[in-house]
Design brief:
The chain has 223 residues and is of the alpha+beta class. Helices cover 22% and strands 34% of the residues. It contains 3 helices and 14 strands. Helix 1 packs antiparallel against helix 2. The chain is elongated. 33% of the residues are buried.
Length: 223
Amino acid sequence: MRIHKEGKGILTKLLLSIIVVDVIAGILFLSDKPNLFGFICGFSILVFLFFLNFFRNPNRVFEGNSDGLVVAPADGTVVVIEPTEEGEYLKEQRIQVSIFMSVFNVHANWYPVNGKILYYNHNDGNFMRANLPKSSTENERSTVVVETVNQTKVLFRQVAGALARRIVTYAKEGDECHINQQMGFIKFGSRVDIFLPMDAEILVNLKQSVVGNQTIIAKLNTK
């Protein structure tokens, strides 16, 4: 299993903490309370395996021609498909597609389109549940706008959830970006919103499970 670079430091500190706890538990309980010692060791192993699984970094490659396509930026479940007013940058009505990530999903995020990064902004905010509608505008979030070769602007937003306390975004204004390239990582439950032109052809349904950098979300009108 490949481990994401955002998790290596956390996993190292966690492993060292677990070793210290288990050694202390062995000194205190191994002789008199072996069942308690076994429980502590078993629980600590489960905790480490949970975090190890959370920070997994699958090697995914989108096959085929990706021009004009919008590919899922994250693993998870589609929780929103609706027209909405995007008020931070585009200032116009767009189709919002939102993908909710549980703590069991891969939390690496990929660029959903090919193009040039026009805008990046990080906003501090609240930490309400990421599947609530207001989380898109009130939670901690990072917003990125990419312009495709056909001059279509696509806005996507990483949104922190009730457990998430750090959003990592690699986007820099002026850089070129591509499908198959990671744009960041969100630590623990969260979501990604995509704001597409009204004439985009949406290819997913509500409650559908999607796979980051694999599932085609939509086709852009390239005419």
